[in-house]
Design goal:
homodimer; 10 helices; globular; 385 residues; 9-stranded antiparallel sheet; alpha+beta
């Protein structure tokens, strides 16, 4: 791609997966032209944005992306923060700032930052452990870098081997009653808005968020406290260059106390339902925030629930067709979001479904019904299928 | 484009203007792949769908489009109904059916059809007139074919020359109090749903819809009667092969009576606000209807108003940049839809803005505020600008 200085893209996006795709989709009606960097030229975002084909941490490719774009943002933290700081120092606009990205990409530094700011985080017990756990109670071992969708997190029983290799740390295990997330957006002018807290329902088998419900089914006081904490987290990151959407994941423990788990400085799975549940979606909001526009209205329009569509356990990885659309469309107020990935694999996020309803429970019921109807058919069934 | 039988598109669209673009945008999350036929390879839909570049009435190009698509539909009526009937008779799926298109594309035949079905239409007074109007009262002269966006309609005072050349007809002039539209959708299984009536506010200068408000500000009985008439119109067209969205334009006269003006068997300017005001937009609904899926919920979510963005009177036709985004985004619950057209021209539809609010009046106020802020800057100002 040749990129003359007179034809820049409005927004560069590092990563062209489903988040990049949904950012680019939100950008089209706004007349915002997006350029995506992704190692796969057939990535999710390829049908709605221009693509530079290359590794996310390649200095050459990052330079091309960023020099073609008025502003560059991320859909994924795992890139090259060091080189991004160089590009930033040359006058390129990268938001959120690479220094923030560097902090967040290291879960240990992230956690220490929050602890220093007086935010409630689980205690850090040790670093770079190996062998059997010496603790008398279950603990959590986490990878410092690269964890995603539940990878890089392990619960370790007393005496059991620490399973994760490489740079890790150990934190106390919180007795989790509910997992919540609060999405906050901050624009370049310092304006901050939050959405209502959502409740995350994990699939224990896949160890990733399988569904999200809004509003979270917690006491009003807990919801208010979650919002305060999330805004506090955002405030603590503002001096580091926070702009865009920030997802703050929280635990409510069995005694009703809230803990900050971790953050992602980008649109997040827990906010997909804002497309239908809120006046302004997390995707349009992220665009507004990094492009210096006033933030949109985050007021809730409706109770809603989102269910991820993942590649089935026993599917043969490969090309697929989507089945069950008619059954899914028959469920009231259901909204299908397929990610256009070229191949299905067991456990891979292929799309999501959001449903609105008069109650959160009914919305979850509808979303599960529609999600259960949709299939990714490879036509080559496994022997045991 | 070579199109093997193993890689068909899900939907062919005749026309790649803003309606084709918004259809294709609604198709992406559903995983529906669209192929568009348009004479301009840089048409509005080009950034979100594959394009076959060619005239809308070219037999060769229509054949290529239709043979590459499982189902083919329209964003514009002015194509080649005769040849489409041939393609249909060869087993290709074209919806709504070409015979319906042929009826609707001829406004005189359309009107006679409704009169025969007992639907209230203005009386037809004459055909193919010329010279001065012999009528003692103002009358309406209309082009039988090709009218669009107010072109092909003229109000003619007694004794004044009939201005329109070619095939035209004359109908009585209804003393219009309010113009309404009711959108109805019918799917291939015969399921029918309607949206709430909307009120159309015409710009007398440009003679096109400048804004649309939902719900229409008419008595409840009038709204109910408008829905009955629109569903009656849809029912009368069902045997001709109606599938998809049908926009039914109505007049309420100064005595409160309703008249059927004309119909468009496709998504329509009067339904753009359904993207934000309704649970299912006219675009997703059209896709569902022609692809044999169950229809979506047309329940209203909110009062809303839409204002068209048109090229300014004195602009120099050509490339442009969009200004005023920040001012427009500062208006609460405003949604910008730019059509990505390569060039601006005076009066050309460049986009629209929808706003939601607790009342229709406030929504209209917000939409006008945001629309007034957005500019299409060519950088080459006319001498009088």
């Amino acid at each position: 791609m040749a990129c003359g200085s007179d034809t820049p893209f409005d927004l560069g996006i590092i990563g062209g997966g489903q988040l990049g795709r949904m950012l680019a989709l939100a950008a089209i009606p706004l007349g915002i032209r997006c350029l995506v960097l992704d190692p796969d030229s057939n990535c999710s975002a390829a049908s709605v944005a221009e693509v530079i084909n290359g590794p996310l941490d390649s200095a050459d490719h990052l330079r091309r992306l960023i020099e073609c774009s008025r502003v560059t943002t991320f859909e994924i933290e795992h890139t090259n923060p060091h080189f991004l700081r160089t590009l930033e120092s040359e006058g390129n606009r990268i938001l959120p700032a690479p220094s923030l990205l560097g902090l967040v990409a290291d879960k240990l530094r992230q956690k220490r930052h929050f602890a220093e700011k007086g935010l409630p985080v689980p205690a850090i017990l040790a670093e770079d452990v190996a062998g059997p756990s010496p603790y008398a109670v279950p603990v959590i071992q986490k990878a410092r870098f690269g964890g995603y969708d539940g990878r890089g997190v392990a619960r370790v029983e007393p005496g059991a081997e620490f399973p994760l290799p490489g740079k890790t740390f150990v934190e106390e295990a919180i007795p989790i009653e509910v997992e919540l997330a609060v999405l906050v957006a901050r624009n370049t002018a310092g304006e901050v808005r939050h959405w209502d807290p959502v409740e995350m329902v994990f699939d224990p088998r896949l160890n990733l968020v399988s569904s999200v419900v809004t509003p979270a089914r917690v006491p009003a006081g807990t919801a208010a406290r979650a919002i305060d904490l999330a805004r506090g987290v955002a405030e603590s990151l503002a001096p580091l260059g926070l702009a865009g959407v920030l997802a703050v994941e929280l635990f409510m423990d069995t005694a009703g106390y809230l803990w900050v788990n971790e953050v992602a400085p980008r649109p997040h799975n827990s906010g997909h339902l804002t497309i239908e549940s809120s006046r302004c979606s997390q995707f349009e909001q992220h665009l507004r925030a990094v492009l210096g526009l006033p933030l949109g209205d985050t007021t809730s329009m409706s109770e809603a629930a989102m269910v991820n569509l993942v590649g089935p356990d026993r599917c043969e990885p490969g090309r697929y067709t989507v089945g069950g659309r008619a059954e899914a469309c028959a469920v009231p107020d259901v909204h299908i979001h397929l990610y256009g990935k070229r191949a299905v694999r067991p456990g891979r996020k292929m799309g999501h479904v959001t449903a609105r309803a008069p109650s959160a429970e009914e919305a979850l019921h509808r979303a599960r019904l529609a999600a259960g109807a949709l299939t990714f058919d490879t036509g080559i069934e496994g022997e045991n299928a």
